[in-house]
Amino acid sequence: MENQGYVYILQSQNCDCIKIGGTDYPPLKRIKEINATEPYKSLGKWELAECLEVKNWRIVEHNLHYRFRSSLNTEIKNQKELFQDEAFLSYIVQLFKFTGLVHWIEQQGIWTFVLFPSTNGGRYFTMNIGSHEVAFSTLRKKDRKKLNMLMLDSLILDFPNVKKWLDKHNGSICTENYATALPHSVSVHFEGSFSDALELFSLDGVRRALIAYWYEALIKKTEENKLSTYERYHNYNAVAKIMKRIKE
Length: 248
Hints:
The chain has helices spanning 27-34, 40-43, 57-67, 86-98, 160-168, 194-201, 206-224, 236-247; strands at residues 5-12, 15-23, 47-54, 82-83, 111-115, 123-129, 132-139, 146-153, 172-174, 185-191.
């Protein structure tokens, strides 16, 4: 039987975790209950980061909890819905830094960042500039392995150490990309954890190639003065929290 309702992600400036839950009535009503109930009350005020109306919300909620079970915070007692992944946060923070996105905060909407988007396969996040993706991490459906993608400038091809690293992580460099991407774009795909992804950032040429592509793509979209196709899904609250972390 279908159980129509909502799954939601809450965040609080007083807690490093996110809360993943579900409800069969309007989420804002549920948030009021959460902010009045321990142990969440002491960690609040909790605010809505993402919400999605779904069929069988209990099943979706259960699957999300199972998917991120390794990140469940077990130190906070009397709860089973607070999740923390320091490696994930570190990766996102470094992505903002390495791509130069920290200097394009005023242009939010031209580029977009979405946490746990409603796509098949269980994505952690996706980032777009204009109408095409420039980064994402997802769980591959066939074997539940984590797959990561980054779009860079083709100058990355001049660094053989990157190709060797990708080979070790079942990765590849693809030169055929989205029709709306810049002509000299390439995308790297690789299996691995967020710690592995941080290791990639340390290789010669990666930061240079990231900045080269993202900067030019952002300049182009800013000159066009046209919002991204996915602007309505952009998570402004998440970006604010990431920027706060960077400034700390």
